[in-house]
Automatic annotation (TrEMBL), chain A:
GO molecular function: 2 iron, 2 sulfur cluster binding; metal ion binding; oxidoreductase activity; quinol-cytochrome-c reductase activity
Subunit and partners: The main subunits of complex b-c1 are: cytochrome b, cytochrome c1 and the Rieske protein.
Co-factor remark: Binds 1 [2Fe-2S] cluster per subunit.
UniProt gene name: petA
PROSITE patterns (alphabetical): RIESKE, TAT
The name this protein goes by in its record: Ubiquinol-cytochrome c reductase iron-sulfur subunit
Gene Ontology cellular component annotations, sorted alphabetically: plasma membrane
Lineage of the species this protein comes from: Bacteria, Pseudomonadati, Pseudomonadota, Alphaproteobacteria, Caulobacterales
Sequence intervals crossing the membrane: 20-41
Species of provenance: Asticcacaulis biprosthecium C19
Cell compartments where the protein resides: Cell membrane
Domain Rieske: 82-178
From TrEMBL, chain B:
Transmembrane feature ranges: 43-70, 91-112, 127-149, 156-179, 199-220, 241-264, 306-326, 338-357, 377-399
UniProt keyword terms in alphabetical order: Electron transport, Heme, Iron, Membrane, Metal-binding, Respiratory chain, Transmembrane, Transmembrane helix, Transport
Lineage: Bacteria, Pseudomonadati, Pseudomonadota, Alphaproteobacteria, Caulobacterales
Stated family: Belongs to the cytochrome b family.
SUPFAM superfamilies reported in the protein's UniProt record: a domain/subunit of cytochrome bc1 complex (Ubiquinol-cytochrome c reductase), Transmembrane di-heme cytochromes
Localisation: Membrane
Name this protein carries in UniProt: Cytochrome b
Length: 180, 427
């Protein structure tokens, strides 16, 4: 503020009032933009009804050995697989050393219920639904970019970085599970 | 060009009245009637006009479709079938819109390769080029979201895979992904917002096109010699010369367009998109639309998730940087005997990348017999994609800067007019 205001010396001596207006207006504009931006951006996040996380119950006794049932859970496919003895053995015996996301099979199933494998059927690469069958490792093969998961749902080959997710679930009775 | 004085003279009283208040007719006259265009422009220069036509076609057909389309996961697919079968003329509008997107990309690729060959990105046209890149990027976004709207299997899994690319960003990726999808998977919220944005973006594109043309009219058009306009001898007025040439090219283009719309409307689409989206079952072979295939091939060429995603976006980003990567002083590759061969190789690379994008990565390009286990061995698509990806980036990042310094260009004509006369003397 070196220019004289209204040609008077007074203006020259008193820059603070004008500076104050500039700063106040600037701050108010920034505040207003932020106040508008927050709800505008926020509205795109999941709405309250979407967030109300649903849990489901399922009777795993309905799944025959060697079979898999796909149920919809929170908009995503949930794999409920009844593994054969050979598949369990393979899952438990696999060498963790060469794995991308090493995890023992025992961490992925409930103790005493090793035959049931419950997974979120979403490829950890870019979200496609892997198919049962077609896998080199006896598990799931993702048709999108060729990620290959074993009989424990662990990533063994292909671009996916992580194992298929095991959701939070518990056995309510011998065969009834509650997911979520 | 900016130094070209306005020659508009309002004739009627109304024109004079308007000219004193909003000189819009003057702007139109100076831009599209008396505008000086290089007199040696060839047919590759007609694609700008064709692209404007494409944008107009997409906007008009799109607005009509939106009168009948229902952006709901339970109704979108059926509403499209209804448009095709029951709405009066709906089949035509729908096929014009879906094939129009392909024609639009076909034209934009020619337009971009034209710019690349004739050095139209070099000073003083950097901003013009950047605005073009912005338009191209917006087109990709628009077409991607449009493709989700029919809510077929390809729509759905296209949306899943592309939105999940964002999830690859470390730390914040998953939150951004949820924000983008409006939930924990591609669902109603996603479809609804994609419809909203798909409606919006073409108008944003139209706005950037205005800037693009403005920038063009400030610096003037490039031409096949790459030599700037030096005198009036070098130019002809836009109307009738360019107008008629553009119109002729548009007619040819619309003929090609019609072949697709009327005789093979589904040739560029995928049968799987006539199956309603099923979040529980991915189709055996998902591929994007043909115009995105080269980028898809780059994504799949790289076995690491994050690096693959970065490479894919970098493949687009590098086009923006082109004006600062080319070190040659000569614009047109007509006079760049070495670079033009790398250009040809680049075009082939892009086409082959597109081909790779449509194959399964583990498929063989050609077979060299079988191994001990009876499995076929040979060149795998993924390996070919890797080689092509390497060339794609090398072209921009190594060849462009390096050849520009090393190459001995052919003699460049002194002016456009001289080049035209020399050409006439030869025949
Ligand atoms: C840059 C211009 C545009 C491009 C590249 C484009 C691209 C696309 C594509 C690829 C589809 C999928 C077509 C299919 O597979 O059947 C589509 C669908 C759709 N677009 Fe556009 N579009 C554009 C402009 C517009 C505009 C301005 C509107 C106006 C609201 C619009 C409304 C729609 C609607 C309602 C659909 C769903 C119906 C259908 O799939 O045919 N589009 N768009
Ligand atoms: S989404 Fe499964 S491999 Fe890419």
């Amino acid at each position: 503020m070196s220019e004289p205001v209204n040609g008077t010396v007074e203006g020259h001596d008193d820059p603070s009032r004008r500076d104050f207006i500039y700063i106040a207006a600037g701050a108010a504009a920034v505040g207003a933009v932020a106040a508008v931006a927050v709800p505008l951006i926020g509205q795109m996040n999941p709405a309250a009804d979407t967030l109300a996380l649903a849990s489901i119950e399922y009777d795993v006794g309905k799944v025959a050995e060697g079979q898999q049932v796909v149920v919809k859970w929170r908009g995503k496919p949930l794999f409920v697989r009844h593994r054969t003895a050979a598949e369990i053995q393979e899952a438990q015996g696999a060498d963790l050393g060469g794995m991308k996301d090493p995890q023992p099979d025992s961490d992925r199933v409930k103790a005493g219920k090793e035959q049931y494998l419950v997974l979120v059927g979403v490829c950890t690469h870019l979200g496609c639904v892997p198919n049962m069958g077609g896998s080199e490792f006896g598990g799931w093969f993702c048709p999108c970019h060729g990620s290959d998961y074993d009989t424990s749902g662990r990533i063994r080959k292909g671009p996916a970085p992580k194992n298929l997710e095991v959701p939070e679930y518990a056995f309510l009775s011998d065969t009834k599970i509650k997911v979520g | 060009m900016s130094d070209h004085p306005s020659t508009y003279t309002p004739k009627s009283g109304i024109e004079k009245w308007l000219d004193a208040r909003l000189p819009i007719l003057r702007l139109a006259y100076d831009s599209f009637v008396d505008y000086p265009t290089p007199k040696n422009l060839n047919y590759w220069w007609t694609f700008g006009g064709i692209l404007s036509l494409c944008l107009g076609i997409q906007i008009i057909s799109g607005i009509v479709l939106a009168m009948h389309y229902v952006p709901h996961i339970d109704h979108a697919f059926d509403s499209l079938e209804r448009i095709r079968r029951d709405v009066n003329g709906g089949w035509l509008i729908q096929f014009v819109h879906s094939n129009g997107a392909s024609m639009f990309f076909f034209a934009v690729y020619i337009h971009m390769f034209r710019g690349l060959y004739y050095g139209s990105y070099k000073a003083p046209r950097e901003v013009l080029w950047l605005l073009g890149c912005v338009i191209y990027f917006l087109m990709i976004a628009t077409a991607f979201m449009g493709y989700v709207l029919p809510w077929g299997q390809m729509s759905y899994y296209g949306a899943v895979v592309i939105t999940n690319l964002i999830g690859a960003i470390p730390l914040v990726g998953p939150s951004i992904l949820t924000w983008l999808q409006g939930g924990f998977s591609v669902d109603q919220a996603t479809l609804n917002r994609f419809f909203s944005l798909h409606y919006l973006l073409p108008f944003v594109i139209a706005g950037v096109v205005v800037l693009h043309v403005w920038a063009l009219h400030v610096v003037g058009q490039n031409n096949p010699t790459g030599v700037e306009i030096k005198s009036k001898e070098d130019t002809v007025p836009f109307t009738p010369y360019a107008t008629v040439k553009d119109a002729a090219a548009m007619i040819l283009f619309l003929m090609l367009f019609s072949v697709f719309v009327f005789f093979m409307p589904d040739a560029l689409g995928h049968a799987d998109n006539y199956v309603k989206a099923n979040p529980l079952q991915t189709p055996a072979h998902i591929v994007p639309e043909w115009y995105m295939l080269p980028f898809y091939a780059i994504l799949r060429a790289i076995p690491d998730k994050l690096i693959g995603v970065i490479a894919m976006f970098a493949a687009i980003a590098v086009i923006f940087a082109l004006p600062w990567l080319d070190t040659s002083k000569v614009k047109s590759m007509r006079y760049r005997p070495v670079m033009r061969w790398f250009f040809v190789l680049f075009v082939i690379t892009c086409c082959l990348l597109g081909w790779c994008g449509g194959q399964l990565p583990e498929d063989l390009v050609f077979s060299l017999g079988t191994d001990d286990h009876g499995n076929a061995i040979g060149l795998k698509v993924v390996l070919l994609s890797q080689i092509l990806t390497a060339y794609y980036f090398a072209f921009f990042l190594i060849i462009m800067p390096w050849i520009g310094l090393k190459e001995e260009p052919l003699p460049v004509p002194a002016s456009i007019s001289e080049a035209v006369l020399a050409n006439h003397a030869k025949h």
